[in-house]
Design brief:
Length: about 210
């Protein structure tokens, strides 16, 4: 009689589970969130860790759990140290699975992107106070980076394409606004002409 794949996956999970490692992750998450171990946010993240492990063991009901976990790590501003601990825990179940690499890369990319937004907003506000075309151009470009960073975060989180497009559109408009400053006020306006740049369209899909 053939064993049910999900039953085999659960057995693999239990065979490879390391309670000390799991407990350490729980402590790290609670510390990062400044919460107690029984806090709902901590419990939800630990369930997400377990679900990712189930997926790596081959459980059919947890497809995409590694990505859900990565996004939650980023959105909850967990530390890179905590992400490393989760990565190492997941490797107990599938040492060479590239999804674990994608989990780490997604979580850390989101963490670093989020962490830079406050400084970026401050820099944008300061640049807006510079009384020159260079200051106005810098302001537009910094504002563009803010929108593009949000677009990147949304891409990593697999959010709706329409919402991503909205951020990209606003970011590109800011880039255009910055280039206008250079064209209109720089003594070398040709340096800010990018007519050779081609933006792909849906025709380039094929």
């Amino acid at each position: 009689m053939t064993q049910d794949p999900n039953t085999a996956a659960m057995q693999q999970y239990h065979d490879r589970f390391d309670n000390a490692h799991y407990t350490a992750i729980a402590e790290f998450v609670a510390s990062n969130l400044n919460a107690d171990r029984d806090d709902e946010r901590v419990i939800d993240l630990l369930v997400a860790v377990q679900n990712a492990a189930f997926e790596l063991c081959g459980h059919s009901l947890h497809a995409g759990a590694w990505h859900t976990l990565a996004v939650r790590c980023g959105q909850h501003f967990l530390s890179s140290h905590t992400v490393d601990a989760i990565r190492d825990f997941l490797r107990l179940f599938a040492p060479d699975d590239v999804r674990i690499d994608d989990f780490e890369a997604t979580a850390k990319a989101m963490l670093r992107a989020y962490s830079g937004l406050d400084d970026l907003k401050t820099a944008t506000a300061h640049a807006n106070g510079v009384h020159s075309w260079q200051g106005r151009m810098a302001y537009e470009l910094l504002a563009a980076v803010d929108y593009l960073t949000h677009a990147a975060i949304l891409l990593l989180a697999h959010e709706d394409d329409g919402y991503i497009r909205e951020k990209l559109h606003k970011g590109l408009n800011r880039v255009t606004g910055g280039l206008y400053e250079g064209i209109r006020h720089s003594p070398q306006p040709e340096q800010f002409s990018f007519r050779s740049i081609y933006f792909p369209t849906e025709k380039d899909r094929f």
